[in-house]
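Many introductory courses stop at the sequence. We go one step further.
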Amino acid sequence: LSAEAEEGGLAGEIARCLADLITLPAPTLCLLLGEGAGGAALALLPADRVLAARHAWLSPLPPEGASVIVHRTSSRADEMAAAQGVRSADLLRGGIADALVAEHPDAADEPEAFCRRAAAAIEAGLSGLAPTGPAARQARYRRAP
């Protein structure tokens, strides 16, 4: 984020993206890869089905930043990540993610195999996917921890 981004209307675009995805009449699928933080990352989340790479996480504020705010040091980022519930397993447990895509041990170490697993997960996720509609999408994220 920057002053230029804010002056350029980033917040409004994030809000429009969220509104568009929540109200979209077509079925939607989201695949979380890597580290997502901030409004722009969260704006791409609302979907009928959400898949996440095993090492992915999603947060309104990176755990390091949250640690600095709460503890005045970034050294407690792991503790903050657990408290925020931002890791893929947390997202799955909380009903934000529907399935995880395995990484052995990390997608960067096995890109082709990971891409095959991700493609298979997307294919399975799209199979039988029907739009749930705005009310169901909103309810899904309201009930999340």
